[in-house]
Amino acid sequence: MVEESMQPVSLKPVKEDASEYTLQYPLTKEQKALSDTMIERIEDSDILCHCVCGAGKTELVVGVIGKYLKEGKKVCFAIARRQVVLEVAHRLQNYFMHASVIPVCGGHTDVTDGDLIVCTTHQLYRYYQAFDLLILDEPDAFPFYGNPVLHGIAETACRGKTVYLTATPDDTLKQKVQDGSLLSLRLHVRPHGKPIPVPVIHTAPVWILCMYLVLWLQVHADHPRIIFVPSISMCHRLARLISIFEKCFHVTSKDENRDEIIEVFRNSRNGVIVATTVLERGVTIP
Fold this sequence. Notes:
The chain has helices at residues 29-41, 57-60, 62-70, 82-95, 148-157, 171-178, 206-219, 232-243, 258-267; strands at 46-51, 75-79, 101-104, 116-120, 131-137, 158-166, 182-187, 225-228, 249-251, 272-275. By secondary structure, the chain is α/β, with parallel strands linked by helices. It folds into two domains: 29-187, P-loop containing nucleotide triphosphate hydrolases (Rossmann fold, 3-Layer(aba) Sandwich); 206-279, 3-Layer(aba) Sandwich (Rossmann fold), CATH 3.40.50.300. The strands form two sheets. A seven-stranded parallel beta sheet has the order 3-4-2-5-6-1-7, with helices on both faces. Strands 8-10-9 form a three-stranded parallel beta sheet, with helices on both faces. Strand 9 (249-251), helix 9 and strand 10 (272-275) form a beta-alpha-beta unit.
């Protein structure tokens, strides 16, 4: 087996115009207030950005990323999952048009340096004491959560400040907030202002639940629909059932072409996809 080199990456200086950015839409009043506070306080403390799902956490840190790039400092956006790395890197490249935004993850390791690096938490082993700002997305999610090796790699990769982005901070982060070593900034409203959906539990025999699901899919056929299931086998079975009535995608951690599947689904105006938890965090569907 051929092993990748464990030598730390030697990073080049940040380009002078790398900090210039343009968001695709203006921040809301609440988003801007949090973003401004983050920029003001980041030199004093690590920050927990405790925001609900859909609050626009990536956009909230664009301002602080721009601040560090303008000062010629190195920034990394570290994410637990490969698919989200590719999506976030693409989004940030659209914002920072003059910067070199480099995704580093499985299948994308030929280039490991840029003005702004977006990588999986596993790939942080390449960057010893390399980053002045490390943004950790969903630190409470698998595989980063509870993994002392990945925690150690993240700590050694950062020589400056860390921003944690999550909707569900774990006990460790909460304790740091309580003892004053971590500043917590909260945003519990999404940009469109609509309330967060509250799950409703339906119990019935399996065949009735399947009929209900098919009817629900038909009622909501004017927009994309995602169905999450707890296992790969259930994902395959349910996708076969739904395919009887309409075209249905399915994606699990075992699908080698899941990037292509997700892209086709994202471009469909009213598609259906059945997925395991591989899609539960960080993937944006228009």
